[in-house]
UniProtKB/TrEMBL annotation:
InterPro entries per record: EmrE
GO biological process: proteolysis
Residues passing through the membrane, by range: 31-52, 68-90, 96-116, 136-152, 158-177, 198-217, 229-249, 261-282, 288-308
Keywords: Hydrolase, Membrane, Protease, Transmembrane, Transmembrane helix
Organism expressing this protein natively: Bacillus sonorensis
GO molecular function annotations of the record: peptidase activity
Pfam family of the protein (one): EmrE
Protein name per the record: 42.1 kDa protein in intracellular alkaline protease 3'region
Length: 322
């Protein structure tokens, strides 16, 4: 249960992304700066944390071993994840972005065959290709049904173009984030902890963010002071707190695709936290009856997903003992 709890805490801090990004957009800030400033600010903050823990040098040693893999998968996991999310915030409210983002629950499960999981046998550990966790996937569909209900009463207020610009970038992000995260777990092979891995991916993705910043200067001008401050808050809450918690949770279950999918499913709580944040910070209306029913489905789906994952692990352990 510990990875699930860490995942829920990560979802709480990730929710700040959707609320603050929408707030910056409503104040006239460019999505380009909302995206790039988060990681530019994150880099020195994370470095100081890892340096204070006495293991910053190991990060650069690992990057030096496989610089191209670090650059590619960090750009996928951070760049192609966060830039589309910020772009989508320019065309829809935070609740819609957070709701659509839950597609990552399905995305992570569908990518299982692209990776190998470690299975302990009498002859020792064996690497086998991951399988789509269909039972867990069914629980994830319950979560998505709840998300759909939550958004149902709001979706009619948006134009088709705004809906398209919200949905398509978030779908791209939903595949990029788990793909980049899992690939970097393979590259690191347990040699780095969550703080080190987040720092390494942030540093390796900086070329992408610096190029995007240059584009921002040419097209939107420099960012305002308010956007810099709010981007700094996103960097701390979402970029550092949420990402480190989530990566720590996924590290605990690496090699076990059903449990990994269950941890990734905890991000469905972002919808609940984002909705509450919009009510509190942006004075959005309270969820109606339909949305409340969706919230209930999300919680039920989360509980069932965790139950199926833990039950399968218990059965696997009994088989191995026999």
């Amino acid at each position: 249960m510990r990875p699930i709890i860490l995942g829920i805490f990560a979802a709480f801090f990730f929710a700040f992304t959707f609320v603050l990004n929408r707030g910056m957009e409503l104040e006239g800030g460019s999505w380009i700066w909302s995206a790039s400033l988060r990681f530019i600010i994150m880099a020195p903050l994370l470095f100081m944390i890892v340096w204070a823990r006495g293991n910053a040098g190991r990060v650069f040693q690992e990057i030096k071993k496989a610089p191209y893999a670090w650059f590619i998968w960090s750009t996928v996991g951070f760049g192609l994840f966060y830039a589309p999310l910020c772009f989508a915030a320019a065309f829809g409210p935070g609740w819609l972005i957070a709701g659509t983002w839950q597609i990552t629950i399905i995305s992570g499960s569908l990518m299982a065959p692209l990776f190998y999981e470690t299975v302990q046998t009498q002859a020792g550990p064996v690497q086998i290709r991951g399988k789509i966790p269909y039972k867990g996937l069914m629980m994830s569909l319950i979560i998505l049904a709840g998300v759909a209900l939550m958004q149902l009463e709001h979706a009619a207020q948006l134009s088709f173009q705004d809906m398209l610009y919200c949905v398509v970038p978030v779908i791209i992000a939903s595949f990029a984030y788990p793909l980049g995260n899992r690939k970097m777990m393979e590259v690191c092979a347990g040699r780095l902890d969550a703080y080190q891995r987040v720092l390494g991916m942030t540093i390796a993705s900086l070329p992408f963010w610096l190029i995007l910043s240059l584009y921002g200067v040419m097209t939107a001008g420099p960012p305002g002071g308010g956007q810099v401050i709010q981007s700094g808050l996103v960097a701390v809450f979402s970029g550092i707190c949420a990402t480190v918690l989530f990566f720590a949770a996924t590290d605990m279950v690496k090699g076990d695709m059903p449990k990994l999918a269950a941890v990734e499913a905890t991000q469905s709580f972002e919808v609940l936290f984002a909705a509450a944040g919009e009510v509190w910070i942006l004075s959005s209306p309270l969820p109606g009856a339909v949305s409340s029913a969706g919230i209930a489905l999300v919680i039920i789906g989360m509980v069932l997903n965790s139950y199926v994952s833990n039950k399968k692990e218990a059965v696997k352990n009994e088989v191995l003992k026999a």
